Amino acid sequence: MTSPYFGRLSVLSFAMIVLVAACAPAPATPTRGGLLEAQLTSIAEAAQGAVSVTVLNLRTGERASLHGQTPRPMMSVFKLPIAVAALVDVDRGVLRLDQAIPISASELRHGGPIAEAWARGEKAPSIETMLTRMLQDSDNTAGDKLLAVLGGGESVTARLHDLGLGGITIRGPEIARDAALACVGAPAPDGGWTMDEIAACPAPGAAALAVAARSEIESPPDSATTDAIVELLARLDQATILNGDSRKWLLSKLAGAHTGAARLRGGLPPDARVAHKTGTGQTVQGVTIAMGDVGIVTLPDGEPFAIAVLMAGARASIETQEAVIARMAKASWDTFAGK
Q: Which helix (H) or strand (E) holds 232?
């Protein structure tokens, strides 16, 4: 026979459970940033490598970040902070956009509009021309020459830090990255590397090349976190690091970039405004040292978001890596556009 006391205790216990459940806070509703971060994590797996991505809605402040504080190789993405440093000097009157800068034969890099113009006799392009070609065509002659004009990698890195932009490190010209793989272990010649000196290096063995590529991936001399790149982009949007004319000029050149059609732009409407800069490293023994795309995307209602994707050591095909970047941009677009 059941005790009356036990029955009363059971009823009381049940009532307490119901009361506690009623008072417990409801599960938190996932934020748009949180949902986007989960999507980005899933998308990143296809790259088969290390992927960092940061996305920031520049009006609402909503944010998603995956390994956003881990430094990754920039490759030609480093031309964006170089452009910012150069335009800061223009704003301060140290440089002029119409200032002609002589380029010697030893400073030429393979291909690109600046080298082609040099061959036609145009051997002193303006800073504006070099900035344009560097940003829109990723011209290496322009990038390395502008870096030299600004005092080298350490000087540009210091300038960025003075602007409150940490997390971005530039050590040297892009040709040094080529030399690190073509002339494994060789010290830089007096006066720096040239294309002729790189061509004269004996081909490295497979093992030495693999070690050199791994070093470029794991200890990149020119590196950035995606959080830092997005901070730079946000500061551009807020007009806190360049004056109005320089900011407008830079964003217009980035919007006219000729590289990376399958990356940030790849999954977006054809008329979407994307002001961006790409970067691509060599593929060594089936591993791409680095690939990236960073920029500001404007939604149909005029609301912009910044996005930076930097990948390192990916084993997926180039097409798959580009598709990963495109899918991340599309997921961000759909999240902030309310789709």
A: helix 226-238
